């Protein structure tokens, strides 16, 4: 399988980047996009060239570390699929692939396709935690949470923090990411103690760092965890609840 690749090359955050052309004659349809980059880097190392830098870890669609723009789309052409699970059988022999880092003003490039997504970490630092009393583990039946509510919370807790939602949004909004965290933590009993404080601080951080929601839903279309677009509504709902309940909740 022959592919023509345009791969982003950038030496550092303050250096202008460019696309570097690479022709691959022996790609295999079963390869993932990350494995394709591994293949290219192996040949670069053998020939004494500097390999391309990109981030990855588990390669099982769980960690959220990987994340690239492939032909202008976060992660790749496959809907709701992380980069590490995007296979080359989606492309045809002779196709061209433009591979670059996820693009957003909140994601400065560190090197090549490695980006700094610490802006998402700062949102979590504001309220992505629960206060509990230290001690022995409580009995399972002491926390009153029905099955439907638990499953709904887990659906939103599935967010892997890859940041594709921000890169997909033309305004660079992080409402899907933040909304998923707010929904998840508002539903579990242990998260109620700082629910209002969490909403105020997380929403303030989001609005100060990221752009406004575009209302088009591009974020949900690329989310590997399948977080529903309705999670975005938690931004307004939780903030309004915190406002009317006052500073103590």
Automatic annotation (TrEMBL):
Task: Give residue ranges for domain 4Fe-4S ferredoxin-type.
Answer: 150-179
Its cofactor is:
[3Fe-4S] cluster; [4Fe-4S] cluster; [2Fe-2S] cluster
* Transit peptide is among the record's keywords: no
**What's in the keyword line of the UniProt record?**
2Fe-2S, 3Fe-4S, 4Fe-4S, Iron, Iron-sulfur, Metal-binding, Oxidoreductase, Tricarboxylic acid cycle
The EC number(s) this enzyme carries: 1.3.5.1
PROSITE patterns in alphabetical order:
2FE2S_FER_1, 4FE4S_FER_1, 4FE4S_FER_2
Biological process (GO) annotations held by this record are: respiratory electron transport chain; tricarboxylic acid cycle
EC class: oxidoreductase
Sample GO molecular function, one term: 4 iron, 4 sulfur cluster binding
What's the family?
Answer: Belongs to the succinate dehydrogenase/fumarate reductase iron-sulfur protein family.
Q: What is this protein called?
A: succinate dehydrogenase
The species this protein belongs to is Corynebacterium lactis RW2-5
